[in-house]
Amino acid sequence: MIDLVIRGGTVIDGSGAPRRVADVAVLAGRISAVGAVGGRGGREVDASGLCVCPGFIDLHTHYDAQYTWDPYATSSIWHGVTTTVIGNCGFAIAPCRPQDREVTLRTLVKVEGMSLKAMQAGITWEFETFPAYLDALERRNPSLNVAALLGHSAVRQWVMGRAAQQRGRPATRSRRWRASFGRPWRPAPSGSDPRPPRRMWETAGCPCRAAWPTSTSSRR
């Protein structure tokens, strides 16, 4: 028996083909048929008047903190998103030492408009390094797929401390940068050092860490 049949929905399959009304059968977690499905499924869903399509990939989110207390990524999951990318704009919450947590959260408040109280109440901080953060996310078993970028600001703070908001990265700290990535890293030219825009300045009057590009900033 087919596990699931979604009946009568308007199928938009993402291939560029015209939309069409069809049934979708699912067996063992995979789509087994699209069209007129004759047999009954173990579960039947009436999708008449609704669209049936692949899940959306949201390439730009800031769920880094929220995922630690909300594995459902509300409200993205309500809108059909099935994969999220976090760590965007260079902002992330790992790697992060205990003494850097406050400045990390206030950066997210200033630049991304997040609630400081929500983050202070929700994040359990059972991690410091980036791999430990990924392990913590895995334990929460998020409902969506998660692709995590390594935030530039978090790396700068980890390597340079308070100096991350005051100047560019000295070349002598390249080894510590490589260690924070957990993988080989080689500096490459990336242009000039423009003055950070005002919205990239923290409450304390210092530029956010991601606002300090240097002529030897990292590139893959």
Task: Provide a quick synopsis of the model.
This protein has helices at 101-112, 116-122, 130-140, 152-160, 174-181; strands at residues 2-11, 20-27, 30-35, 41-46, 51-52, 56-58, 81-86, 145-148. The chain is an alpha/beta fold and 220 residues long.
Task: Describe the protein's architecture and organization.
With 220 residues, the protein is an alpha/beta fold. It has 2 domains: 2-54, Urease, subunit C, domain 1 (Roll), CATH 2.30.40; 57-211, TIM Barrel (Alpha-Beta Barrel). It is 21% helix and 20% strand. It is built from 5 helices and 8 strands, in the order βββββββαααβαα. The protein has helices spanning 101-112, 116-122, 130-140, 152-160, 174-181; strands at 2-11, 20-27, 30-35, 41-46, 51-52, 56-58, 81-86, 145-148. Strands 1, 2, 3, 4 and 5 form a 5-stranded mixed sheet that branches. Strands 6-7-8 form a 3-stranded parallel sheet, with no helix packed on it. A hairpin with a 2-residue loop joins β2 and β3. α4 packs across α5. The longest helix is centred in the middle third of the chain and has 12 residues, at 101-112. The termini are far apart. Mean pLDDT is 82; it is low at 187-199 and 215-220.
Question: What labels would you give this structure?
Answer:
single chain; 220 residues; alpha/beta; Urease, subunit C, domain 1; TIM Barrel; 2 domains; five-stranded mixed sheet; three-stranded parallel sheet; 5 helices; 8 strands; 20% strand; disordered C terminus
How are the SSEs placed, and which strands pair?
Blueprint: E1 2-11, E2 20-27, E3 30-35, E4 41-46, E5 51-52, E6 56-58, E7 81-86, H1 101-112, H2 116-122, H3 130-140, E8 145-148, H4 152-160, H5 174-181
